[in-house]
Design a protein that fits this description.
The protein has about 750 residues and is of the alpha/beta class. About 45% of the residues lie in helices and about 10% in strands.
């Protein structure tokens, strides 16, 4: 029992049960009390006890005692501002104090004659000064004695100076024990950047995309009758993020890295809506890989998971450590739309993404991307991101500027947009109709390229600019009476067409080959003619996001995913698995060298309903020039009618396709031998024609040696284009030759 109790008694004796900061304060108070007693004893105000202490000190140190209160106050100040290791500072301070006292006592004593000094003479520097200086005075003389002890005093002051320079910042425990007044006075001032958008306008950012600040051109002559929705339909931002103890986290990060021999210098702190970014600059010769490898160690030290290390921060020679906030701030579209970068931009396809880790609004231009892929696990914010993009486009554009084609296989996300004037067709739910819409878009893309070539315009922006100039020169306004006249004169404005697909995985599972072919064909060529794709999926796998799709859609948004493999599938790098969900995203585009972390804007369902109800309330014939014609063509395509070019790739077209189609409809069966004999082609071409007919839904799949089933029963529109079969051949004469199907 004695062995067990001994450490407890020793612990109480050493006061180690007290916090370290309390020990420092206690030592400071003791030193100040001693200084006060000695100072009052000089004026005979400390009573008998003070007189006894003064007499003893005069006997030991002589006249040097009059400087002792100054040294004690200096030591108390060091302990009060202090370090988290007061025991080490106590030893160094005591050593420096004794050096100063002994040196000054010896210097004072050297000014008296050495042969006259005795125990009864009360030397000027006290008896400690006498015994210290006596040997040097005896053998080396006055000047050597003076130089030696001056150096001793200087050395003591240097120790005081070094102690004051190496005072370390307080830990979390010490900071919490201080009152607020002492914090403001004694703690270092840190540069902390607050969220700028919640109060006033935001400062510029160095790596922000350079957006032109010209007003969006409005059609002249009173052509546009579209009223943009009011910002009052949207909810404003409320509340601020709760970051926790920023100074404590800075100390923890610095000490953790120094424990692994990585000295760093802490920089500014950027407070964002979701995370707080602590910046630091490592010393020269430190590899960044050593810092990134300590992700789990920093997470353990900060008691927060997950954290993300950005090394380096783009455009800066700093490393960023992103620590989740204790409480988030909700980002709203209303405040983002009020930003000058959004209001003054000249791009009609500019949309809002949210706020970055510094709270700065982030906007992107779909025309510069030119297509966008959105991926992430279920419930991480993909559909809300699509809604924020759609509302950004609706707030900036009239139906004569932007038209939408929306695909929603889940059938629950986009019905709220039904019947708004911006839609080229009703919201599409069926996979086959989606393929038909993609086919129509390919046809429209080719038609637009022909129009641009005829006017020698490079892209849709230059073409519309030229058309506007021609209309202004003509001095005419576009209305219902003048549309036909403008079409006859060749004055046609092209609207942008935005295709939004909410769930790509469902379409790829149903019609993977056709959907991939349509998306790739549009992504390769449709940029110049104003057709853009926004594709979202909750299954970021290589079966859904294929290599062709990734190669042609370089702008991507990823929300939280399940694994690092999924993150690499979307953005070709790790990081998405460490996101926090609920709109926390990584955005990469051709304008950015590294993924940029953004907190997406939150859009409530009632906000979307308010905007769409407002748009439906003023729905009129907003179609400009060819737009009504385009909508009619798309409607016919969705119904399955022939409207022109049907295939995505030009190499799949065959001049004999129409004849082959009419042939199988007339004979009510399809086989390779029938194609060979009637169309006088080889087996390879006949088999390819059968594949094309199967892809377009004319005939069924192969069934062994039996002829294929024909789904279309009548086709009168193509009879004139098909030569009649030879009279010597009967319709049933090929039944014995169907064994060609086995080849």
């Amino acid at each position: 029992m004695a062995k067990k109790n001994f450490p407890k008694k020793e612990k109480i004796k050493n006061l180690s049960f007290l916090p370290k900061s309390i020990k420092g304060y206690l030592l400071s108070l003791v030193l100040l009390l001693m200084a006060a007693i000695i100072l009052f004893s000089f004026f005979n105000l400390a009573g008998k006890g003070g007189q006894q202490i003064l007499a003893g000190l005069l006997f030991l140190f002589g006249k040097t005692i009059y400087l002792l209160p100054l040294f004690l106050v200096l030591s108390a100040t060091i302990f009060f501002v202090g370090s988290h290791n007061p025991q080490r500072v106590l030893k160094m301070t005591a050593f420096a104090l004794l050096l100063c006292l002994f040196g000054l006592s010896a210097i004072l004593n050297s000014f008296g004659a050495i042969e006259k000094i005795s125990l009864k003479a009360k030397p000027l520097g006290g008896f400690l000064g006498y015994f210290l200086s006596f040997p040097i005075l005896k053998f080396f003389g006055f000047w050597v004695n003076l130089i030696v002890f001056i150096l001793v005093v200087v050395f003591g002051f240097l120790i005081f100076w070094q102690i004051s320079k190496k005072i370390e910042p307080k830990t979390a425990e010490e900071l919490n024990e201080k009152n607020q007044i002492l914090k403001r006075i004694l703690e270092p001032k840190l540069k902390i950047r607050e969220i700028p958008g919640l109060r006033e306008s935001s400062p510029p950012r160095e790596d922000k995309v350079d957006l032109k600040t010209k007003p969006i051109p409005v059609f002249q002559g009173g052509r546009s009758i579209y009223k943009k929705p009011s910002l009052d339909l949207l909810e404003p931002e409320k509340g601020e993020p709760v970051t926790g103890d920023i100074r404590n986290n800075m100390v923890i990060i610095k000490n953790t890295l120094e424990n692994f021999d990585i000295p760093v210098e802490m920089g500014e702190v950027n407070v964002g809506p979701t995370v707080t970014q602590y910046t630091l600059k490592p010393s020269e010769g430190i590899k960044l890989s050593k810092i990134t490898a300590l992700n789990n160690d920093l997470s353990l030290a900060l008691a927060t998971h997950p954290i993300r290390i950005e090394a380096p921060i783009p455009g800066k020679s700093l490393v960023g450590i992103e620590v989740p906030n204790s409480s988030r701030a909700t980002v709203r579209l209303k405040n983002l739309f009020e930003d000058s970068a959004f209001k003054d931009s000249a791009s009609p396809l500019l949309f809002s993404l949210g706020r970055d880790v510094a709270g700065i609004p982030v906007f992107a231009d779909l025309a510069r991307m030119p297509h966008l892929l959105v991926a992430g696990a279920t419930g991480t914010g993909k559909t809300i991101c699509l809604n924020s993009i759609l509302l950004s486009l609706l707030y900036r554009n009239s139906p004569e500027t932007v038209r939408l084609i929306m695909v929603d296989p889940k059938r629950v996300e986009f019905p709220v947009y039904q019947d708004i004037p911006h839609l080229l067709s009703p919201v599409i739910y069926d996979s086959q109709k989606t393929i038909n819409a993609l086919k129509w878009l390919v046809k429209e893309m080719e038609r637009r390229f022909e129009v641009l070539a005829s006017t020698k315009a490079r892209n849709i922006a230059s073409y519309n600019k030229e058309m506007n100039q021609r209309m202004e020169k003509a001095g005419k306004s576009v209305n219902s009476e003048s549309k036909i006249r403008y079409e006859e004169e060749g004055l046609e404005l092209m609207p942008y067409i935005i295709v939004i697909i909410d769930e790509l995985a469902d379409l790829m599972a149903a019609k993977g080959k056709e959907v991939e072919a349509g998306i790739v064909r549009l992504a390769q060529m449709a940029r110049a003619v104003g057709i853009h794709l926004i594709v979202a999926t909750q299954r970021p796998s290589v079966e859904v996001i294929t290599g062709l799709i990734k190669a042609n859609i370089t702008s991507r948004i990823t929300f939280q995913v399940a694994s690092q493999v999924d993150s690499r599938t979307v953005i070709d790098g790790a990081g998405a698995e460490k996101l926090l969900g609920a709109g926390d995203m990584l955005f990469i585009s051709p304008d950015l060298s590294k993924p940029r972390r953004i907190q997406g804007a939150y859009v409530m369902e009632k906000e979307v309903k308010r905007v769409t109800d407002f748009l439906r309330s003023q729905k009129q014939d907003f179609g400009l020039l060819k737009e009504n014609f385009l909508a009619e063509e798309l409607a016919r395509e969705l119904k399955g009618e022939e409207v022109g070019a049907e295939e995505f790739f030009s190499d799949s077209e065959d001049p004999l396709y129409l004849q082959a189609k009419q042939l199988v409809i007339e004979y009510k069966k399809a086989s390779a031998s029938l194609m060979q004999r009637r169309l006088r082609v080889g087996y390879a071409r006949a088999a390819r024609l059968l594949d094309i007919l199967e892809e377009r839904g004319v005939v069924g799949p192969a069934d062994g040696a039996r002829p294929r089933e024909v789904y279309i029963k009548e086709e009168n529109s193509l009879q004139a284009n098909v030569p009649m079969p030879n009279s010597e051949d009967e319709p049933g004469s090929d039944e014995n030759n169907d064994d060609w199907e086995k080849v």
